[in-house]
Amino acid sequence: MPTAVNSATYAAVPIGTVPTTLTINGETRTRAIEPWTTLLDLLREGEDLIGTKKGCDHGQCGACTVLVDGRRINSCLKLAVTLDGANITTIEGLGQPGDLHPLQSAFCDHDAFQCGYCTPGQICSAQGLINEGKARTRDEVRELMSGNLCRCGAYSNIVDAVLDVIGEKA
Amino acid sequence: MATAAKIGIGSAINRVDGVEKVTGTARYAAEHPVENLLYGYIVEAAIAKGRIVSIDEEAARAVPGVVEVITHLNRPHVAWTDHSYKDELKIPGSPFRPLYDDRIQFSQQPIALVVAETFEAARFAASLVEVAYEAEAHNTDFEVAVGDKYVPKKKRSGYMAPKNRGDAAQAFADAPLKVSGDYRLAPEHHNPMEMFASTVEWHCDGSITVWDKTQGSQGVHAYLASVFGFSRKKVRVLNPYVGGAFGSGLRPQHQVFLAVLAAKMLERSVRVTMTRQQMFSHAYRPQAVQSIALGAETTGKLTAIRNAATTSTSRYEDNMENVVTWGLMNYDCPNADAEYTVAQVDTPTSADMRAPGAATGMTLFEIAIDEMAYVAKVDPLEFRLVNYSPIDAMNGTPYTSKALREAFREGAEAFGWSERSAEPRSMRDGKELVGWGCATGMWDAQFSKTSASAKLTANGHLEVACATSDIGTGSYTVMTLVAAETLGLPPEQITAKLGDSDLPTAPVEGGSWGAASTGAAVQLACQAVGKKLLKTAGKIAGAPLGDAKMDDVLFEDGCIVLKDTPTVRVPFGDAMHAADLTEIEEEETAAPGFGDMWKGLHKSKNTHSAIFAEVKVDEELGVVRVTRIVDAVAAGRIINPKTARSQILGGVVMGMGMALHEETFPDHRLGRWMNHNFGEYHVPVHADIHDIQVIFVDEPDSEVTPLGVKGLGEIGIVGTAAAIANAIFHATGKRVRSLPITIDKILG
Ligand code: FES
Ligand code: FES
To answer: What fold is seen in the domain B18-25+448-591?
Structure first.
């Protein structure tokens, strides 16, 4: 007997958008955003800010970490329309080629990555941690950045880079 | 004239692509902006075996923005022969053909692609596709499948059949000391951080540009041409940045097939990205069981090795690995035999994952070796030295080099091994039991035919190019350093180009052959440019270099310099100007056998490592912390100590995952991986990583490859899990023979 799996019968959802004003890396933009669009997809597909990475889309890897009003969040878990008026900083807003943020330079100097895919998330997470005033010791950094996976295994170099920036001996 | 420290081979420079990566300007496969892009979302099979009876797409098609639902019923023509779908790896069997017909060969098999104007519309519509199946009985239980294990008739290329010696059965029977048992490794998934994705740009002349997550742009290029009937000129594949792969990108994966299929059908540009869950629908490290029996004299001298392993493959292809050979090669023992078989389960074909075969077979073997050392009451490191083989003991051939003894010595010293107390459970730190273990790692030093070009322009800028990939391995930096070394230019004046099927030919990047092979090709191309420069310099009035030959000059600071009279220097620009050249471009191919390589023709070529691990185990909770690792690696010449160290760190971290965390669980009733996400498939995280020290042992070797490079991508993982497992035994007295060593196994 054939069995139906994948069964789901939803009525087609009406398309509607919500005007939303976001300040991204210092630039204020108003966009008509569908309510189901995540901040991550808005950044990557809508604004071509591809520095913010998608590694799982489920809040399990940290690749999508950005700063919202200075706090680090997983942008894949945040619907963009809920951020009206928010101030968002992505990796592109931290520094640019030729004008690197100290964390970006430290990551280069400590070879704190290989493939580079987790890197923007690691850097934004580290900046968030510094903002929280918590990145004081190696153990703290390790513990509080454990939401940022690195499959290339650059962890020890990442911690060295962060400690270097906060002025601790790496 | 002395120069500021020359930068070249051996210089620990920052990764040349680092700035792009830390600023988020490096674009990976799903990140190339294309006009008018459509998004494809994959629908996967919910059963493990059977056929599709019907697909109801009506609701999906009704979603605003949906353009097409592509299934086996409405797809355009694609090739049908097995031959057309063969990729560079040429696994024997019948390769998976996506959306080919109604057959389901594994759970999560792609069965439809929903294409829409937005990602969200495609994703939502995909959830509305209703599929009716006719299910057949399946088996995903490897332990059951092992009952039907077999030796594949057709062997995978690169497979090394084990060679027996002496009479291992008899020697084992006679041995005064014995260890025997079954050792197991769980299935693992590569899980690179970047999800598999392809962006296909459709051009109005019917040609396509494809940005793909792959370890080989030219392999994907050949595959697409063959499967879709494109003329080779009409396809270009690029992978300038790859967010990790670890072997999962060696074969073209189905998202690139689907994206190109949709682009061709709709004559539009299309992007398809797998979700993290869908990343479990293809490549994985085969599950393994290895029966090891060791016999030894009371002195600890090995007298018998018996090593039989079975690994999982699919029903449709025979994926084979070199699992059982390592122990036979590495240990001096007069009697040894081995057998390797595969067993079929209803999953996709298992695949190469970092150090395929060795990460399984050498690691499990090194746990057995440790057991034997305890039985013989010999220190585990001493035991390995007692049974040390300076030659490849299986093939009876010398190595081009083997500095494993030095690795043991330097590693042991850095670790403080001599302070170890022999008895298990004899070391403690508060609530935690402390254990120290060691193991040997081993991998092949390979070399693959590779071409590269070098183009020097009159302004002193050099561009070197090769179609190889940089999956985080540092290929850009390696190419830059080799070019800097050969032509004496600073890295800032050199651009390395890779990841483009239009560039000079290179194989897929894998097996640790990248640096040795690409490096040699770049060196040859740069030398050819050097020769040309020397020739053009002859046209300068007064011929300042006389009739100097290549051996009489060196290249330094953008000048040709007479070795005997270093004050005689001809800037490259002057030489080119004299011949009215604005650029010099040369392409060369490095094939096995040149330089001193012929001397190594009949020798074994391998990297080795000595790994030392310290664990702390909470006695009540069974939680293991790997507090220290020292990995001493003998891998020939190191091109960039900085990126090289990172490669070993990465291998070690993945080895920690193998030891303690990584395991994909099938639900045998559904025939489906259960923990197909990062929440439940555990990989090491920041908090798991403590002190890791990497040592590169000096190991000059001109015979192994032209640059004396042996490669580093795999060696870091091999044996690491064994060193940890052995340390756990030392800490707890509990021997666990199956990886990963999870808390239940320690407390159970
Ligand atoms: S993509 Fe957001 S946490 Fe993984
Ligand atoms: S650098 Fe590759 S995942 Fe972190």
So the answer is: Aldehyde Oxidoreductase; domain 4 (3.30.365)
